[in-house]
Write a structure and sequence with these properties.
about 500 residues, alpha/beta, 10-stranded mixed sheet, 6-stranded mixed sheet, 15 helices, 22 strands, globular, FAD, tricarboxylic acid cycle, Probable malate:quinone oxidoreductase
Length: about 500
């Protein structure tokens, strides 16, 4: 009879998935507990290839400077800045952590992953112009947004974003906001830098290993993984597991069998970009220009004309165009969605369809759109666009959270949600935008929730990494401005 024994090793923590979430957590643990044995397990042959890859995400460094979906308009016309302020505060946590790593020689040249790129919002039509004016007024009362400028003048628009203004009728009613505090972040490159630092202080990163099971082993977890090349199987026994596997987080948490995941489901959405191939056109645009979402569109599908820096090269893209696939990862299986349906979530997943008819209609229209119709969407933001200057590429896969509510119905959520077991032994991150941009804030909250007994020892270290942690920059203009200036200097960003 064949020997079916599997070698079991031990670790202080196992992080599943080699993307920005696990990379951030590994770098943070290396600061808080440098003596820990941490293992990162990634299914693909390299790290940061799924949602963290530059061409698979928007890479704005979401800070709500330009994303209109974070500032909803009420029925009375008022605009609430609350969600935008929260997201900006969370992004400042990321900026402070990255600045700390650079200032203390943990990671190298920040120009490898972050660049200054002005953030803009652009709208047209009288009602939308009025909304953008109200949004500007609501946001600039806050010190994190007070350098944002507003215009309805075509000449000013031409200065801020020549490609948006070029060949646009001067009679068209338009408005735009512009902020110099915006950034472009290559999260794939950042993932590599963070894990490289973590490796230097003892973290083990294993690529080409797929986690196939999570089982209780007494008070620990047994994390079983299989080599994608040889089929070899191994188990790591650990008291702490983080599931940062993008769309695969849901089925892995289901495998773990924790009651906190009961009732949760996922709705996958895919996408595509148009990428500019003409260097002369790319050189004319230096901004991230976000518009208003179509009716029913998920937040990840808000149209934007973006300057990007990916693998050190300046690029220009437009999109995304939403699509649909049952895969939970870009490299996933067409059975992912169906395999995630369980007796505990099936009724909730069915219940989300009727309230989200607008979303279904939107996705159907996107799937049915012709190449000409898709290009017309680009022309709305760039009237001078020429088809020969653009190519279509496939974006990343996102799984929107279907969460149970108190009435045992399902609610489709757009955003990021953290699930943790009651005993603090396992946690995972579900959902999509703005997860990458706010990963530092999410990971600190995860650690404080899962290791309450270590808070007194960790508090001074966290305060050094993130000086504003536990306070509100929005309520202290001097602190907000000082933080922006300090992180800009450390990260090599322009701040003028």
């Amino acid at each position: 009879m064949a020997d079916l024994r599997v070698d079991v090793t031990r670790a202080d923590a196992v992080l599943i998935g080699g993307g920005i979430a696990s990379a951030t957590l590994a770098a943070m643990i290396s600061e808080l507990e440098p003596g820990w044995d941490v293992q990162v397990i990634e299914k693909l042959d390299d790290i940061g290839l799924e949602s963290s890859d530059g061409w698979n995400n928007a890479g704005t460094g979401h800070s709500a400077l330009c994303e209109l979906n974070y500032t909803p308009q009420d029925v009375d016309g008022s605009v609430s800045p609350a969600k935008a302020i929260t997201i900006n505060e969370q992004f400042q946590v990321s900026r402070q952590f990255w600045a700390h790593l650079v200032e203390n020689d943990r990671i190298g040249d920040p120009g490898a992953f972050i660049h200054s790129v002005p953030h803009m919002s652009f709208v047209h039509g009288i009602d939308s112009v009025d909304y953008l004016r109200r949004r500007h007024e609501a946001l600039t009362a806050n010190p994190l947004f007070d350098r944002m400028r507003f215009t309805t003048e075509h000449a000013q628009l031409s200065e801020w974003a020549p490609l948006v203004a070029q060949e646009r009728p001067v009679t068209e009613t338009v408005a735009a906001t512009w902020s110099p505090d915006g950034t472009d972040v290559d999260f794939g490159a950042l993932t590599g830098l963070l894990l490289e630092h973590a490796r230097r202080v003892g973290t083990t990163v294993s690529t080409g290993w797929e986690v196939v099971d999570l089982r209780r082993m007494g008070t620990d977890w047994g994390v079983m993984s299989r080599s994608t090349s040889t089929g070899e199987t191994r188990v790591v026994r650990t008291p702490f597991v983080f599931v940062g596997a993008g769309g695969a987080a849901l089925p892995l948490l289901q495998k773990a069998g924790i009651p906190e995941i009961d009732g949760f489901g996922g709705f996958p959405i895919s996408g595509q970009w148009l990428r500019c191939t003409n260097p002369e056109v790319i050189a004319q645009h230096d901004a991230k220009v976000y518009g208003k979402a179509a009716v029913g569109a998920p937040p990840m599908s808000v149209p934007h004309l973006d300057t990007r820096y990916i693998d050190g090269e300046r690029s220009l893209m437009f999109g995304p165009y939403a699509g649909w696939s049952p895969k939970f990862l870009k490299t996933g299986s067409y059975t992912d969605l169906f395999a995630s349906i369980t007796p505990k979530n099936v009724t909730r997943m069915m219940a989300v369809a009727p309230p989200n008819i607008d979303l279904m209609t939107y996705l159907a229209s996107q799937l049915a759109a012709t190449s000409k119709q898709r290009f017309a969407a680009l022309e709305e933001y760039m009237p001078s666009a020429r088809p020969e200057d653009w190519e279509q590429i496939t974006a990343g896969q996102r799984v929107q959270v279907i969460a149970p509510d108190k009435d045992k119905h399902g609610v489709l959520q757009f955003g990021t949600q953290v699930i943790t077991a009651a005993d603090g032994s396992i946690g995972g991150m579900l959902g999509a935008s703005p997860g990458a941009s706010t990963a530092t804030d999410i990971m600190i909250r995860l650690l404080t929730r899962m290791f309450p007994e270590r808070q007194d020892a960790w508090r001074p270290i966290i305060s050094r990494m993130v000086p504003s942690w536990g306070t509100s920059l929005s309520s202290d203009a001097d602190a907000a401005h000082a933080s922006l200036e300090r992180t800009a200097a450390a990260l090599g960003l322009t701040h003028d």
